[in-house]
Amino acid sequence: MTRYRLRTFALELVMIAVGLVFAFPVYVLVNLAVRRPSDASSPIAPTTSPTFDNFGAAWEQGALGGALANSVLVTAGSVVVVLAVSALAAYPLARVTARWSRWTFLLVMLGLVLPFQLAALPLYQTMRDLGLLGTPVALILFYSGLQVPFTTFLYTGFLRTLPRDFEDAALIDGCTPLQGFRYVVLPMLRPVTVTALVLNAVAVWNDFFTPLLYLSGSSQQTMPVAIAGFVGQYVSDWNLIFAALVISVVPILLVYFALQRSIINGFAGGLKG
Q1: Which fold is adopted by the domain 59-272?
Q2: CA 18 from chain center: how many Å?
Q3: Among 27, 90, 216, 247, which one is most buried in terms of CB atoms within 10 A?
C-alpha cells in the first residue's frame, strides 16, 4: 500500500487551493444572480435575503426563451455536422499511407493555423448573397467549416492508435470500407467523439462575435447576444445579467455532467495513445 507522506499532503493542499480558485467565480456568479437589486454590498459578501425573481425577470425581459432555442438549434446542428464530416474525413487520412493522404492532412491542418478573421468579410458577403443572413443556417455553416479541422485532427490522432485487425476481418467477411467504418470503427470512436462533442458544443454555445455579426438586425439571437442586451450605455442590470448567465450555463453543465465519464475516458485514451 502507498504510504501517506508529506508530499501527498502538500499535493492535496495544492489541489484544494486550485479548486477554490476555480470555484470562486462560480460563487460570485450565483451570489449576484440571487441578490436583490437594492442590496449594494460587496459581491463577495453572501446574500442575506436571496431571491429567484431575477431569473424570471431576465427570462422575460431578455426574451431568453427564443434565444435559448436558437442556441440549442445552432449548437446541435453544428456539432452533428462537424462530427459526421470530421469522422468520415479522418478515417481515410489515418488509414491510407499514400503521399496524398499526408498532404491532404496538412492541408486540413491549415485550418488550425489561419485565423478565421481573415475570411470574416468574404464569408459575410457570401452569406448575404445566399440570403442566409439572419438565420441559424448561416451560423451552422460557419461553425461547421471552422471546427472541422480541429475535430479532424482529434479523430485522426485517435484512429492512428487503433489496431486494424477488426477492420481487416470485416473486409475479409465482405464488408465495404464504408460498412467497416460504420459497424466496426465508429463504435470504437465513442470516447473521442464524446470529447469532441463537448469541446465543440462549448465553443459554439459561448461564441458572441459570429451571432452578433450574422444575426444582426433580426429577431433571432443566441444566448450570449441576448445577455449582452442587458448592458446599455447608461444602465446595466447586473443582477439580471448574472441571472441570465446562470440560465445560459445550465444546459452546457448538464451535458457535461451527463457525459463526464466518457469525456474523462476520451482524454485518458488519447493520452495513452
Answers
A1: MetI-like fold (1.10.3720)
A2: 23
A3: 90
